TrEMBL record, chain A:
Belongs to the CcmF/CycK/Ccl1/NrfE/CcsA family. Its main location: membrane. Pfam families: CcmF_C, Cytochrom_C_asm. One of its GO terms (biological process) is cytochrome complex assembly. This is Cytochrome c-type biogenesis protein CcmF. It comes from the Bacteria. It comes from Roseovarius nubinhibens (strain ATCC BAA-591 / DSM 15170 / ISM). It is found in: Cell inner membrane. The keyword Transmembrane applies. Residues 89-296 form the Cytochrome c assembly protein domain. One of its GO terms (cellular component) is plasma membrane.
From TrEMBL, chain B:
Residues 130-151 are annotated as: Disordered. Keywords: Cytochrome c-type biogenesis, Heme, Iron, Membrane, Metal-binding, Signal, Transmembrane, Transmembrane helix. GO terms for molecular function: metal ion binding. One of its GO terms (biological process) is cytochrome complex assembly. One of its GO terms (cellular component) is plasma membrane. Possible subunit of a heme lyase. CDD domains: CcmH_N. Gene3D superfamilies: Cytochrome C biogenesis protein. This is Cytochrome c-type biogenesis protein. Residues 6-148 form the CcmH/CycL/Ccl2/NrfF N-terminal domain.
Amino acid sequence: MITEFGHFALILAFCIALVQAIVPLVGAAKRWPGWMAVAIPAAQAQFLLITLSFAALTYAFVVSDFSLRLVVLNSHTDKPLIYKISGVWGNHEGSMLLWVLIVALFGATVAWFGTALPPSLRARVLAVQAMIGAAFMAFLLWTSNPFLRLAVPPMNGEDLNPLLQDPGLAFHPPFLYLGYVGLSMTFSFALAALIEGRVDAAWGRWVRPYTLAAWVFLTIGIALGSWWAYYELGWGGFWFWDPVENASFMPWLLSVALLHSAIVVEKRESLKSWTILLAILGFGFSLIGTFITRSGLLTSVHAFANDPERGMVLLLILAVFMMAGLILFVVRAGTMQARGVFGLGSRETMLVINNVLLAVAAFIVFVGTLWPLVAEMFFDRKLTVGAPFFDTAFTPFMVVLGIILPVGAMLPWKRGKIGSVMRSLMPAFLLALAVAALIYAMQSGKSALAPVGMFLGTWLVAGALVDLWGRTGRQGWQQRLGRMRRLPRADWGKAVAHAGMGVTMAGIAGLMAWESEDIRVAQVGDRFEVSGYTIWLRAVNEVPGPNYRATRAEVALSRGSESIGTVFPEKRIYPVAGMPTTEAGIDNGFLRDLYVVIGDKQEGGGWAVRTYVKPLANWIWGGAILMALGGFLSLSDRRHRVAAGARKSVAGGVPAE
Amino acid sequence: MKRLVLILMLMAAPLWAVEPDEVLDDPALETRAREISSGLRCLVCRNESIDESNASLARDLRLLVRERLVAGDSDREVVDFIVDRYGEYVLLEPRKDGANLLLWWAGPGMLILAALVAALYVRGQRVQPGSEPEALSADEARRLDEVMKDE
C-alpha cells in the first residue's frame, strides 16, 4: 500500500512539474502575476510529493519488502540497517529518484528564499527547473520505475553489491548528485536570464551560492569516491582517470571556473555572456556524466549498448537541454552588455586566465574520455586513453593555475600593479622556493614531481596566509590578529579553499613520488622491514561478520623500538552475492600511511602480504576537506545569505574582497 | 554502477596485483617489468594497468612481460610483442600517430585558441566608454585642424 502511495506521489509530482514548467513561463511572458505565482506552490508541492515517494521507497527497503523488484535485487534481511537505507540509492532506479528529489529540493529553495528576486525571473527559473525535473521524472517512470512489484515475491533478496556496503561509498553518490543537480540550478538561472534578456549583479549574487553549493558537494563526493578507492581496491590508488571518474571531474572543473567568473559578474558586471555559457556547459557536463555512468557507454567499449534504451533517453534529454540552452545563448547573448571595464593587470584578467585554464583542462578531460569512442567510430582504431595521457596533458594546467593563483587572489579589481602584489608575496614565494630546493637536494636527483608539488603546496598555503594578513591593515600585530578573526567569512573561505588546493597538490605529488612497496609471502609470526618500518604478521583468523565471512590478519607495526600500532587487514567474502572484497589495514599518519593488505594463503604455507608506505596520502583528502570547508565558510557569509541577495543589487561600489 | 559490476566480476577471481611468486629475482629486470606493466592496460578492467589489476588475465600478461624480459627482449620489443598480440587497445598511453595526433593536439590547440579569444576580449573591453579615449584618426585630426583654423 505504501509502495503504491509512493508511486502515485511520483506521478502526481510529474504532473505538477509539467504545470510548473508551462504556466509560470506564459505568465512571465504576458506579465500575469497570478500565473507567475503558480510556480511557488508548485515547486513546494513537487518537492513534498517526491520526498514522500522517496520515503516510501526507503520504507520498503528498511522493512525488506521483497514484493518490490528493486528491493529483491538490491537488499537482504541480514544487511545492517545503514546499508539497507543506502541501498535505496545504490542502484540505478533508486538513485534516479534521489536525483529528481534533489532537483525538486533546489527548486524549492528558490520558492522558499527567493522573495527578493524579480517575480518574472523567479517564475522563469522555477519553470526551467521544473522542465528538468519533469524530463527526469518521465525517464524514471517510463524506463526505470523503482516501484515495480513482483507477482511472486522471493523469500529473501539478492543483497546489495558488497562494494557498496561501505561507509565511503554509501554516501558518495548522494553528494555527487547534490553537486550535479546543483548545477541544474545555475543552468535554470542562466536560461531564465537569457529569456529575460538581463544579467546583472543581482543575478550573479544568486548564481554564486548555488554554484558554490554544487561545487562543495561535488568536492565532497569526488573525495569520498577517491578515498574509497584508496582503501578498498587493495593497492591504494586514489584516481584512475576512469571515464566514470572523469564524468564527475569535468563538472567539478567547470563549476570552479563558474564560481570564479560569477564573482566577476557580481562584483564588476563583466564576463556576463561567458558566465552564462559556463552555467549552460556545466550542467551539460553533469548530464554527460549521468549519461556516461548510466548507459555503460564508456566504462568499457565492449559494454556499448549495455542499456541502450535508457542510454538513448538520457542522450535525448541531454541533447534537448543543451540545444535549447545553446540556441537561446546564441540568440540572446548579444544583449548582455558588460559595464565594468578593467585593465590588463587586474583581478578580472587573472580570473579570465583562471577560466581559460580550467575550461581547457575540462576540455582535455572531455576529449580524452571520449576519444576511444571517436577513434573506434571514425578511424577504426580500438585504443585506450589512460592515466599516462591525462598525466601529461592535464597536469601542466593545474601547475600553471597553482602558480598564478596567489597573485590573482591578491590583485585589486579593475586596475592593479602585479609588482606590488609580488612584493607582498615575496616571503611566501621564497619560502616555497626554499622548500622545493631542499626537497630536490634531499631526494638525490629523482623526478621533478615532488619539488614542484611541494613548491605549489607551500606557495598556495603561504600565499593564502599572506592574503589574509594583508587584509588586516597596518597597526600592530595584536590588532591585526584581532582583525583577522573578524574578517568576513567569505575572505576566510577563499583563503581556506585555496590553501586546501595547495595541500591536495602537495599530497598528490608526495604520494606519487615517494611511495614504496613490498610484496612477499609471510608466515604467521614473521617480522620484516619496509622502508624502516617493522611489520609483524602476528596472526591470521577467520572472523564472521553480519553478512560476510572475513579472513582477518593481525599485523603489528613498529619503527625501531617504538610501537606504532596494530592494523587488521581483511579479506571478506559475501556469500549471498558471492563476491570477495579486500579491506586494507591502514595506519593513518600525518606524514605517511602504512597500508597493509592480506592476500591468499600460499600453497607452501604462509600468506601473501603487501605493504605500502604512502607518504602524505591523507593530505589529498585533507586538502579536499579544506576546500569544502572553505566553500561552506563562504556560503555562510552574511553577504551570501540567499534572501539578502537582491535587495542590495548596486554594482558600482566594490566591497573589500 | 556499471563500473562496480565490472569490478565485481573481476574480483570474482580473488587474485591480486603482482603476487609474490611472480616477482623476478633480478631486481633490475623486475623494475623494468613493473614499468612496462604500468603502461599496459588490463584488457577486462576499467582504466587499470596490469600492474594494478586483480584479474587473472592481467596476471597472464604480467607473466608474459616477465618471460619476454628474461628471454632478453628490450622494453620496446616487449611492448611491441604485446601490442602485436592484443592490439593497440592495451596501450594506456595512446600512440602519437595518425588520427591520435588530433587527441594529443586538442589540448594545446584549444589553449592557444582560448588564449587568443581571451586576449582579444581583455584588450577589446579596455577601450570601452569609461577608459581612455582612442587617439584621433588622421581624418579627425585634419578636421579638428580645420575647425580650429576657422575659429
